[in-house]
Specification:
The protein is mainly α. The protein has one domain: MFS general substrate transporter like domains (Growth Hormone, Chain: A, Up-down Bundle), CATH 1.20.1250. Helices cover about 80% and strands about 0% of the residues. The chain is built from 15 helices and no strands. Helix 10 runs antiparallel to helix 15 and helix 11 runs parallel beside helix 13. About 55% of the residues are buried.
């Protein structure tokens, strides 16, 4: 790195890195959201049941759980640069391969491989945030890149119906899938660790490392027995499935209940995910603002999570409302609350653990969330076929956040100093 006097104004290259993480997460969610937009269309064309659709999504979730662990480990061993590039290349090819599927089993296979690759996104992104941001900025940076999930989900109903109506559903999978390779071409030459990067001067490096202390690598065997590890994992096991429910079933619910066709499904889904996008940034901003006012990191995260958990409660009314846009706004509020909640859960990995362990913590807790999603997806399809109603999933979605936060508070009532 070129030597720059410490008195020089700090560069801000860390925000370029944050922008790349945001863009990767946009692509991640665009690729996984295509099926949710096309669910009703493909159900008519291919003839699968709601149970089979739930099983297709469950295949993704099971693979996503494996991908979180395997690629979380890979990111910690190879670094964010190589690990992220590998994951994104892998999932881009798998996303495009959906165009070759011709039945429910084929979609299940394609979703499985997509889940393996996409499992690397969040461990790599959180690892990069831990490398590039001091603790006081991590929640905000995390909220920014997590907001890419909702941008990707917003882009899907804008892009996918147009591609499908003009060139068929196969084109929707193929075009969105290969977009990730463009990101890899940007990431590889731009990403280095701060100390190795020619675009980071001494002042910015000092800011990034302002709260860092040397820390030795942490093995999984040392992480698993820790209550703080279980706290994060249990919260994600309980709450991540709700986001997957919105992502894979919200469009189908709106089409089933309010007879909305593919041409008109875009505005309701866009509204839901724009609201969720605001919630992601607001949740990270809120806890960071509390820290700037003197709150401890754990107390600030819990306060933000509590606010989100309370505001999500009205979603239980969605299945019984007779008005489409009332349902849309209630789902949007719940999605926003989930994203604000999730931004703080993600950040807890870097608050409670040293930097060398962040990728593994994110991988293990992400695996727990994906396993919860796997079980929830198996249940939703069967409940829908059995009852013809979405009532049970929405009731669970409304109450689970308060329960999860209570568990976290019991397991981690106070924070320990784990800086690094």
């Amino acid at each position: 790195m070129t030597s720059v006097p410490s008195s020089a104004a700090a560069t801000r290259f860390r925000w370029i890195i944050c922008a790349l993480l945001f863009l990767a997460t946009v692509i991640n969610y665009l690729d996984r959201s295509v099926l949710g937009v096309l669910a009703a269309t493909l159900q008519k064309e291919i003839g699968w049941t709601d149970t089979q659709y739930g099983d297709i999504n469950a295949a993704f979730q099971l693979a996503y759980a494996l991908g979180f662990v395997v690629l979380g480990w890979l990111v910690d061993r190879t670094g964010a640069r190589a690990g992220y590039a590998f994951a994104l290349t892998f999932w881009s090819v798998a996303a495009a391969a959906h165009a070759l599927a011709r039945n429910a089993f084929g979609f299940g296979v394609a979703r499985f491989f997509l889940g393996i690759g996409e499992g690397g996104n969040f461990p790599a992104a959180i690892k990069a945030v831990a490398e590039w941001f001091p603790r006081k900025e991590r929640a905000f940076a995390t909220g920014i890149f997590i907001s890419g999930t909702t941008i990707g989900a917003v882009l899907a109903p804008l892009i996918v119906p147009w591609l499908t109506l003009h060139w068929g559903w196969q084109a929707a999978f193929a075009v969105t899938g290969v977009s990730g390779l463009v990101w890899v071409a940007l990431w590889w030459p731009l990403y280095r660790r701060p100390r190795e990067h020619p675009c980071v001067n001494a002042a910015e490096l000092a800011h990034i490392e302002s709260d860092a202390t040397p820390a030795a690598p942490v093995k999984w065997s040392a992480l698993v027995p820790q209550r703080r590890m279980w706290a994060i994992a249990l919260v994600k096991f309980l709450t991540d499935p709700i986001w997957w429910f919105y992502l894979f079933w919200a469009g189908k619910f709106i089409q089933d209940k309010f007879s909305v066709d593919l041409k008109h499904i875009g505005p309701p889904l866009i509204c839901i995910y724009l609201m969720a996008d605001l919630g992601s940034v607001a949740g990270g901003w809120f806890s960071s603002a509390l820290m700037r006012r003197g709150w401890g990191a754990l107390s600030a995260r819990k306060a933000a999570m509590l606010a989100c958990a309370v505001c999500v409660l009205p979603v239980v009314h969605v299945p019984v409302t007779a008005h489409q846009w009332t349902a849309v706004l209630l789902i949007g509020l719940a999605a926003a609350c989930h994203q604000g909640f999730a931004a703080n859960v993600f950040t807890l990995a870097s608050d409670l653990f040293p930097r060398p362990a962040v990728g593994s913590v994110a991988g293990l807790s992400g695996m727990a969330g994906a396993l919860g999603g796997f079980l929830f997806q198996l249940g939703v399809g069967r409940i829908k076929d059995l009852t013809g109603s979405y009532l049970v999933p929405f009731v669970i979605a409304g109450g689970i956040y308060l329960f999860a936060l209570a568990l976290m508070h019991m397991l981690v009532p106070r924070a320990e100093d784990t800086r690094g």
